[in-house]
Design brief:
heterodimer; A: alpha+beta; Jelly Rolls; 3 domains; four-stranded antiparallel sheet; 11 helices; elongated; B: mainly alpha; two-stranded antiparallel ribbon; 8 helices; 2 strands
């Protein structure tokens, strides 16, 4: 896509696929051409924004600091893709930084023209809103969730599957003993995890809950209650299981998390005592058998020496027993 | 103890290590000495040697019992390190008492201090580390079901301690005897430590795969808001409690 003709550009943007030729023409009249040099910061997180951009040539990277303060590459966008939707809607503060990776040619729609765009394409604001919501979810998953390391298309697919739950202070999200039907991810707010009357943890943005009952096939082993108004994302049990089963790294993560949260819960496998396996668990079974034999000989020698000592035997007898034992 | 702590991929709190050593020495040692004196036990022959081991090993564990109230200290490696701290604290104070008992005889005093200083890493610290590691590991798997394994480890350690206390041979062969038991103890410790290290690395990588990568140049040391412990630089989820890590200013 090297053309800078707004009409030609719009026809190739997936987001505008469903527009009629007339709507394409009216909308294109509102777009202004823009150019940026390679390495330039087009949009900066925290700055106020007033434009939405569509790329016609070049590539940009979208970055934002995650919870631990590291920059995360949220997306790399190319021709036909857009960024800065939030500036057209209710938010003026940029939520991410966008840098050009190559010389950029693009088109921009000014915030002041959104009313005219709505006249040209009725419902465009609502469509932008839906897209923005999905993009925001996608960014949340990439910067503050256990799903951050999944491939981009998987995260995007998850963003479409997740639903939002706004919990008010005091709301009980899951109750101990209930059947499990959903997995939850905390987007914002504070929630308390309780077993009986005992507080186990306080969950904040980026934390998750609900995986234990799903992955162990049991019931909820704790109650989770909102300590303040909180925003949660939830995924159905079947979607969660499918996602976890499809990604080994994610399965390892949740297996470990279940290990931490499920400690001491009933139904765990009862292992028979095996002192050799206890103190030398890395040994193979053949080597373990050999150590068992050695241990038994050692115990016999020890018992014999005890007996000799009680009988007042001298060093010669001790040496003899040790020699036989060895 | 320092070797164990430095071998750990997660950090420990020095103050807690010191507290563990002091607890084992301040609570466990007087208790053990009191019981031994009441029973009139002296090391040398086999039966008292076994009884002393049966008294001292649980006494040292008093220093690490507090770990059971800390779910975030969930790794066998934590048990090893805090157990070694308890054992070494116990041994240090016991050595001091032995020294004080021989304070009128300088040569005997020095000889005792030297011998115990050299041998103590092979004995008390090692044994308590092994039992403590098993306790922590089995607690993570479920407290009740782990008891047989804890008893098994305890049994192994009591046998080693008894053999250590027992004096079947005269000097200088008695030194070779101690060396033999000490080496057996250290081999056991190394085996447990190897497994502990593998387990811990696997757990940490499952929760925080970023740990595989070198820490970021401008990474910040963060403390988990859940368990209050410092996490390795660059990881996103606390390897100890699983909660999300965040800068204080993060939304």
């Amino acid at each position: 896509m090297t053309t800078t003709d707004p009409l030609q550009v719009l026809r190739r943007v997936t987001f505008f696929d469903s527009l009629s030729a007339d709507e394409h023409r009216k909308l294109s009249a509102l777009l202004q051409p823009v150019t940026f040099k390679a390495g330039e910061t087009i949009v900066k997180e925290g700055d106020s924004g007033d434009k939405w951009y569509v790329l016609t040539e070049g590539m940009v990277v979208v970055e934002r600091a995650d919870l631990i303060g590291q920059n995360v590459n949220l997306a790399v966008l190319g021709p036909g893709e857009s960024f800065g939707e939030s500036a057209l809607l209710d938010e003026q503060t940029r939520r991410a930084t966008v840098r050009s990776l190559a010389p950029i040619h693009g088109l921009a729609l000014d915030r002041a023209d959104i009313a005219r765009a709505e006249e040209a394409v009725p419902g465009i604001s609502a469509r932008l809103r839906r897209r923005l919501d999905l993009l925001t979810l996608d960014k949340t998953l990439k910067r503050a969730s256990p799903f951050a390391r999944l491939p981009d298309d998987t995260v995007w697919s998850l963003a479409r599957q997740l639903e939002t739950l706004n919990a008010q202070q005091g709301d009980v999200i899951v109750r101990e003993g209930e059947e499990a039907d959903c997995f939850y991810l905390v987007r914002s707010g504070r929630l308390e995890v309780r077993r009986g009357a005992k507080r186990l943890a306080v969950l904040l943005g980026g934390d998750s809950f609900g995986e234990v009952a799903i992955l162990t096939g049991g019931r909820r082993n704790a109650t989770v209650q909102a300590l303040e108004d909180s925003e949660l994302l939830f995924l159905s049990k079947s979607d969660f299981e499918a996602t976890v089963n499809a990604h080994t790294g994610l399965a390892d993560y949740f297996r470990e998390l279940v290990g931490i949260r499920y400690r001491g819960a009933p139904g765990q496998h009862l292992l028979l005592p095996d002192p050799i396996a206890t103190v030398m668990p890395t040994l193979g079974s053949r080597r373990r058998q050999r150590y068992w034999r050695t241990l038994l000989v050692g115990v016999l020698v020890f018992a014999l020496l005890t007996g000799l000592a009680q009988l007042g035997a001298g060093p010669a007898a001790v040496y003899a027993v040790l020699a036989i034992g060895s | 103890m320092q070797y164990l702590a430095e071998s750990n991929i997660l950090s420990e709190r020095p103050r807690e290590l010191a507290l563990t050593a002091v607890l084992a020495a301040g609570v466990g040692l007087p208790l053990a000495i009191g019981v031994q004196q009441h029973a009139g036990l002296l090391p040398g022959s086999l039966l008292p040697a076994v009884l002393i081991a049966l008294i001292e090993e649980p006494a040292k564990l008093l220093g690490v019992l507090w770990i059971l109230s800390q779910p975030s200290l969930r790794f066998r490696m934590d048990g090893l390190i805090y157990g070694a701290a308890a054992g070494m604290g116990f041994a240090a104070f016991e050595t001091a008492l032995y020294g004080l008992a021989r304070v009128d005889f300088v040569a005997a005093l020095l000889g005792t201090l030297w011998l115990r200083a050299v041998l103590s890493p092979f004995s008390h610290g090692t044994w308590t580390a092994i039992v403590s590691a098993t306790i922590v590991r089995q607690r993570a798997a479920g407290q009740v079901h782990g008891i047989p394994r804890v008893l098994a480890a305890f049994g192994c350690v009591v046998v080693l301690h008894s053999l250590w206390n027992w004096r079947p041979l005269d000097f200088p062969l008695s030194l070779a005897w101690l060396l033999l038991v000490g080496v057996a103890s250290v081999i056991l410790l190394r085996t447990v430590m190897h497994q502990a290290s593998l387990e811990e690395t696997s757990s940490v990588l499952a929760l925080a795969p970023e740990f595989r990568n070198p820490p970021p140049a401008h990474g910040e040391t963060l403390k988990c808001v859940g368990c209050g412990r410092v996490a390795p630089v660059g990881v996103h989820y606390c390897p100890r409690c699983g909660l999300a890590l965040r800068r204080p200013s993060a939304q």
